Amino acid sequence: SAQLNKLAKAAGKLYFGSATDNGELTDTSYVNILKNTDEFGQITAAYPSSVKTPGNAQKWQYIEPSQASFSYASGDQIASLAATNGQLLRCHTLVWHSQLPSWVSSGSWTQDTLTSAINTHISNVVGHYKGQCYAWDVINEALNDDGTYRQSVFYTVLGDSYFALAFKAAAAADPAAKLYYNDYNIESTGAKQASVVKIISLLKGAGAKIDGVGMQAHLIVGSTPSQSSLQSAIASYVTAGVTEVAYTELDIRFASLPSTQSGLQQQATDYTAVTKACLAEKACVGITIWDYTDKYSWIPNTFPGQGDALLYDSQLSKKPAWTAVSSVL
Ligand code: XIL
């Protein structure tokens, strides 16, 4: 039967993919679907066995838990899964205010020492995965929803100079990886999207390479932006000078549960809008869902009472949204 990655590739896209986490990889029924490359042509690395939710293994907290001491086992497990299956790997993420070890978030930094810590982190991690990452999310979530810079340790110590620093270090360590700025609530136009456009210019003005914008797309059933508004945001990033964009963490959650039959139809409609926007914009290279099944979604842990956000239910059965996505691809 028709499957998502196969259809996405036939439609000219690079991949349809899923995030995954190490703790789920002992679930054979789950893995059998994940490794079917007709269904998923790309995976995003993840972690740890204690947290059954996607997308962690390459984060600073896990990969450099103490200064200059690197721990690659969990990230390597996902990278080799992708390599074995012939799937692309999106690598996530290098500089982010969240999931930082305390030596970074609470260190007493000067501009020089933090610059050096960022350079060491990026050159080691990107160097370790050199040649294995289709793309790296170099900087994640640097903006507040009103478009101002988030007051992370990076911004507080270095101001906006850490953007070029990070992208230059990543480019030096793996010249072939596509380098992305990744964030949420930038899927449609507004103050935050406008600030992403400014970040692209800032990087280019500083002589740094940025290839792509990753739109996380953690959306809500019934308030997903329209296809045309999704396309306008994509077009703005292309005009600003990136050669590609992607939906990197797509999920569309119910704000309250249980979900109803009509809610599942609305969710299908919302997934259709995102899929069609990617299809209609040549620069959109692919769609990654933030894990594929409600069984392993991060949503219920982070947004209590919400969920059912993915294309497969917790019994690994396809939902109406799966049917809708496969029929527009
Ligand atoms: C989430 C993971 O899925 C969870 O397991 C973890 O507890 C928190 O982080 N934006 C991102 C992702 O860029 O890294 C986040 O992943 C979800 C929001």
UniProtKB/TrEMBL annotation:
Protein family (similarity comment): Belongs to the glycosyl hydrolase 10 (cellulase F) family.
Known EC number? 3.2.1.8
GO MF terms listed in the record are: cellulose binding; endo-1,4-beta-xylanase activity
Q: Name the domain of life.
A: Eukaryota
Q: Where in the cell is it found?
A: Secreted
Q: In which pathway does it act?
A: Glycan degradation; xylan degradation
**Name this polypeptide is given:** Beta-xylanase
Describe which stretch of the whole protein the shown chain covers, with first residue, last residue and complete length: 17 to 345 of 417
Catalyzed reactions: Endohydrolysis of (1->4)-beta-D-xylosidic linkages in xylans
Q: Which residues form the GH10 domain?
A: 1-328
Organism, as annotated: Xylaria hypoxylon
Keyword Magnesium carried by entry: no
The GO annotation for biological process reads: xylan catabolic process
Q: Does the keyword Zinc-finger apply?
A: no
Q: Which UniProt keyword terms apply here?
A: Carbohydrate metabolism, Glycosidase, Hydrolase, Polysaccharide degradation, Secreted, Signal, Xylan degradation
One GO term of the cellular component aspect?
extracellular region
